[in-house]
Amino acid sequence: MPGEVEFDRVARVVKLRPSKQLEAVKPGDRLLARVRDVQDKIAVLEALAKIDGTPLKYPRTGVVIARRGENLDNVVGVGDYAIVEVSSIYYGLITFDLYGHALGCIASLCSRCGSILEKRGNMLECGKCGSRERRKLALKYGSLNQFIEEMVRVLEGKDSG
Ligand SMILES: [Zn+2]
């Protein structure tokens, strides 16, 4: 099994670092991510592409931590696409920021019927079932639908191929 063994003196563990070169992801990078799971205080997102639309060769999973006193239910929803910024990487655990000015959801799915929600003032509304939901919205919410659709097509094509 090719790889590089390294001993981490601080954590006192031996790790096998894959020799396959992962694209560098570093704090400050902005990525397009899909929300996989949402709990009260933590959400799991999978970064799929760079902000210019180039898919990452290896999707990166990371977490968003709720701000003090906040519940993530009003910030992201499962299936949403969001622009996130890598805020830290600690022993391979990536933490994403979602609260910055240009960050947040760019396409959110209705939690009832799965349709893409439309922006109405500060809220999102489902054109199909009328559900009204709240999210942390990116400045460009809704303006990237075509981009998203294209990306979803590429990603789903990759799965079936
Ligand atoms: Zn709906």
Q: What attributes characterize this protein structure?
A:
single chain, 161 residues, mainly beta, OB fold (Dihydrolipoamide Acetyltransferase, E2P), five-stranded mixed barrel, three-stranded antiparallel β-sheet, 1 helix, 10% helix, globular
Question: Quick recap of the structure?
Answer:
10% of the residues lie in helices and 41% in strands. By secondary structure, it is mainly beta.
Could you describe the 3D structure shown?
By secondary structure, this protein is mainly β. The protein has one helix at 145-160; strands at residues 4-8, 13-17, 30-38, 42-50, 55-65, 81-90, 93-97, 104-107, 118-120, 123-125, 132-133. The chain has a single domain (21-143), classed as OB fold (Dihydrolipoamide Acetyltransferase, E2P) (Beta Barrel), CATH 2.40.50.140. The chain has 1 helix and 11 strands. The strands form 3 sheets. It has a 5-stranded mixed beta barrel. Strand 9 and strand 10 (123-125) form a beta hairpin. The chain starts with a strand and ends with a helix. The mean pLDDT is 84. The structure holds zinc ion. Residues 110, 112-113, 115, 126, 128-129, 131 line the site of zinc ion (ZN). Zinc ion (ZN) binds next to loops.
CATH architecture: Beta Barrel
User: Strand fraction band?
Assistant: 35-45%
Instruction: Evaluate the radius of gyration.
Output: 17 Å
Spatial gap, N to C terminus? 26 Å
* CATH class term: Mainly Beta
H/E element string?
A: EEEEEEEEEEEH
Helix content: under 10%
DSSP E strands, number: 11
